[in-house]
Specification:
The chain is α+β, with helices and mostly antiparallel strands and 466 residues long. The chain has helices at 19-36, 76-79, 88-96, 126-138, 204-210, 217-234, 243-250, 272-282, 310-335, 340-346, 359-376, 382-391, 399-403, 410-418, 423-431, 446-465; strands at 2-11, 44-49, 52-61, 67-75, 104-109, 112-121, 160-167, 170-171, 175-176, 179-182, 184-186, 195-197, 238-239, 256-262, 286-289, 295-304, 351-353, 357-358. The strands form 5 sheets. Strands 1, 2, 3, 7, 8, 9 and 10 form a 7-stranded mixed beta sheet that branches. Strands 13-15-16-14 form a 4-stranded antiparallel beta sheet, with helices on both faces. The chain has a 3-stranded antiparallel beta sheet with strand order 4-6-5.
Length: 466
């Protein structure tokens, strides 16, 4: 006989960036522990919303598999005396392993005869094993950062607020540090009435759906994509694809509803990145472009809830974005009043690393390294390269980058173009940060490549040296 198992860990909102890795752990830890305990089962699935981690195991056997152990004892010579009677060593082996004389036999190993015993271990009821095993799973996670709360003896990514575990239709009853495992989960924080009673494992998903929680993250993702694509199509727009942003939004909502927002066309005079960055990094909005690739004065956002009062929600989101874009426009206009050369001098007051000096010192290191590499490569445009090296860190002290640090390099290129620098200088400023992470684009120009390598060599060698 077999039953399905639901195990839910209810938590305060989990940081979206750690959810996928946590789900991988939940699956791997559970499968390994079930195997160790000889509990056979069918498919193992894991799910997550911002407030819960869920383990769903199909066709789990109601009883642990029986086990027959072969136990090696003392050598035959040590097990019997000269008269063939059991020695103390053999009696101790029998007593320690709860074996009878008729359960032992002689077996040769590496040309020596040893006493062996066969021990039959009957499997326990699965539900009894789960009472300890599920606690083990709860305590086995490894997070980049974890926390303790309320005097609890264990750590977790966020405080655990409830536990639910149903095996078939039976409650797996246990507790950990005062957190009781019962039949109640929680619905949507706002839209539901709160507690949702689960009587059978198989009704878990539908009961939560009725409480405005879509537990399956793949289903939520498809829902978000379809809703956004439909809205974009209605205005002849194209969504700026960003899988990382989609994943983050996915784990910020339990019941997604996408909607269209707008902002004043006057902000389109800003550099595209200065608009997209506040949208994505600060507000988690999806930017929209025309079929020609021009940025539109619209955005897509995803609400954690239904479409009730959606116009009020839209208005609130538009107001927040308008404030951020107003700040960006102000910073942009102010930054343009000052030359990049002036900003370079300001780097003398910004410490890169206490033992390594200021950002101005780092700039000079990059100039020296790039000059050395240029000679090795027989690169001729040394004046352009040196100018790019001199200006590459200048935008770090601009108002725009202080507010939106994701724009470092991007705004440097923009300001270089505005003040009439060579296009190779402008591109080199932007490209010297590339690649910023594994899988990122690499510089598209030789100047950008030389500056990128110089910057990274200086950082790595400097940090190792101290």
């Amino acid at each position: 006989l077999a039953r399905n198992l639901i195990f839910e860990i209810g938590v305060e909102e989990i940081p979206a960036r750690v959810v996928n890795r946590t789900l991988e752990q939940l699956k791997n830890i559970s499968e390994n522990k079930f195997k160790d305990k000889r509990i056979y089962h069918g498919e193992v699935k894991v799910f997550a919303t911002p407030r819960r981690l869920t383990l769903y195991v199909k066709d789990m056997e109601e009883k642990q598999r029986d086990q027959v152990l072969e136990i090696k004892g003392p050598s035959k010579k040590a097990a019997y005396d000269e008269e063939g009677k059991p020695s103390r060593a053999l009696e101790g082996f029998l007593r320690g392993n709860k074996l009878k004389k008729e359960q032992i036999y002689i077996k040769e190993l590496s040309k020596t005869e040893y006493v062996y015993g066969k021990k039959f271990i009957e499997g326990e009821a699965t539900i009894e094993i789960l009472k300890e095993l599920l606690v083990d799973i709860l305590l086995s996670f490894n997070f980049p950062r974890s926390m303790k709360w309320g005097g609890k003896s264990f750590r977790f990514v966020r405080p655990v607020r409830w536990l639910l575990s149903i095996f078939g239709d039976e409650l797996v009853k246990f507790e950990k540090d005062g957190i009781l495992c019962d039949r109640y989960t929680r619905g949507h924080r706002v839209l539901s009435d709160g507690l949702v009673e689960i009587n059978k494992a198989d009704e878990y998903f539908e009961k939560l759906r009725d409480a405005y929680v879509i537990v399956d993250q793949d289903e939520r993702k498809e829902l978000i994509k379809k809703q956004c694509e439909k809205i974009a199509k209605d205005i002849d727009g194209v969504i700026v694809k960003d899988d990382n942003l989609l994943e983050e939004v996915l784990y910020l909502v339990e019941y997604p509803t996408a909607f269209l927002g707008s902002f004043s066309e006057e902000f389109l005079s800003l550099p595209k990145e200065a608009i997209i960055t506040p949208m994505k990094e600060h507000q988690r909005y999806f930017p929209l472009v025309s079929k020609d690739g021009d940025l539109l004065n619209h955005f897509l956002a995803v609400r954690n809830g239904d479409d009730k009062y959606i116009d009020l929600v839209r208005e609130g989101n538009e107001k927040v974005l308008r404030a951020r874009l107003s700040d960006a426009r102000f910073f942009y206009e102010e930054d343009k009043k000052t030359s990049l050369d002036t900003y370079v001098n300001q780097l003398k007051d910004v410490v890169f690393q206490e033992a390594l000096g200021t950002l101005y010192d780092k700039t000079n290191n990059i100039r020296g390294l790039s000059s050395y590499l240029a000679k090795k490569l027989d690169f001729q445009d040394v004046e352009i390269l040196d100018r790019a090296a001199y200006l590459c860190k200048a935008d770090l002290v601009t108002n725009m980058v202080k507010e939106f640090d994701e724009l470092q390099g991007i705004m440097g290129r923009e300001y270089a173009i505005i003040q009439g620098e060579d296009s190779q200088v402008a591109d080199g400023i932007k490209e010297h940060y590339m690649p910023r992470f594994a899988g990122d684009d690499t510089p598209g120009s030789l100047i950008g490549s030389i500056l990128s390598i110089s910057d990274k060599i200086d950082t790595i060698c400097g940090c190792f040296s101290i």
